[in-house]
């Protein structure tokens, strides 16, 4: 059985939604981030970066949310949460998933934690935060343009794991002055995906109540 090490609404949310949509049995293991458990000796032994999530799949211990998502969709190709390997659509799926994790997610991390770059320099922290919000907003605009032309989901009308990944990031980005949902085509995707029972179940298991994103 899969084991997903998580903390509510952290980067485990996308793998968690995918596990639910796949209908796979899994065990959730809380990493008590409120008490810095992600930096405990025990957790560092499975995730040397001290970051959440980690997936344990038998003898395989896997970190990085996007890698976990890719592994899960590859293990269960019959669920069609990604196009077939080698198809042009698969390449576009890689493009969007990697854009989400490598560009948007990283910018959101800087926006959420600018002091990790600036230390105690309050003025610099504000500049970094504002810059990260602007850059994240520009990435969201790119997604909005793509969805307007090619939507309603990343791969047209074909649900893929990239859609779940955007839900996770959109939840984090809710406090932005121009949040993801302010863009109509992103809002439509978020409405479609958060209406899925699998998505609601995943967030419920994590103790998240109310609107998801
Ligand atoms: N690139 C990693 C980032 C994971 C990450 O930064 N997770 C956050 C929670 S969303 C975390 O563990 N933060 C704890 C810390 O930085 O100490 C991934 O996508 O899995």
Automatic annotation (TrEMBL):
Protein name: Glutathione S-transferase family protein
Keywords recorded for this protein, A-Z: Transferase
Organism: Bradyrhizobium rifense
One annotated GO molecular function: transferase activity
Sequence ranges assigned to domain GST N-terminal in this UniProt record: 1-80
CDD domains: GST_C_Beta (cd03188), GST_N_Beta (cd03057)
Keyword Lipid biosynthesis tagged: no
Annotated family: Belongs to the GST superfamily.
């Amino acid at each position: 059985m899969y084991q997903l090490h998580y903390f509510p609404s952290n980067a485990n949310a996308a793998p968690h939604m995918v596990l639910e949509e796949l209908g796979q049995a899994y065990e959730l293991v809380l990493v008590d981030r409120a008490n810095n458990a992600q930096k405990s000796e025990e957790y560092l032994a499975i995730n040397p970066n001290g970051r959440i999530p980690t997936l344990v799949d038998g003898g395989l211990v896997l970190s990085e949310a996007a890698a976990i998502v890719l592994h899960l969709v590859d293990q269960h190709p019959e669920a069609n949460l990604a196009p077939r390997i080698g198809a042009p659509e698969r390449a576009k799926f890689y493009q969007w998933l990697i854009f989400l994790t490598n560009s948007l997610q990283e910018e959101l991390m800087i926006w959420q934690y600018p002091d990790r770059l600036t230390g105690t320099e309050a003025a610099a922290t504000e500049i970094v935060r504002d810059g990260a919000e602007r850059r994240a907003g520009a990435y969201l605009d790119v997604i909005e343009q793509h969805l307007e032309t090619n939507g309603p989901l990343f791969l047209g009308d074909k649900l893929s794991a990239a859609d779940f990944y955007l839900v996770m990031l959109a939840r984090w980005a809710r406090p932005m002055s121009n949040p993801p949902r302010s863009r109509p085509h992103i809002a439509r995707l978020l409405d479609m995906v958060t209406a899925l029972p699998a998505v609601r179940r995943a967030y419920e298991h994590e103790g998240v109540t109310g609107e998801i994103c």
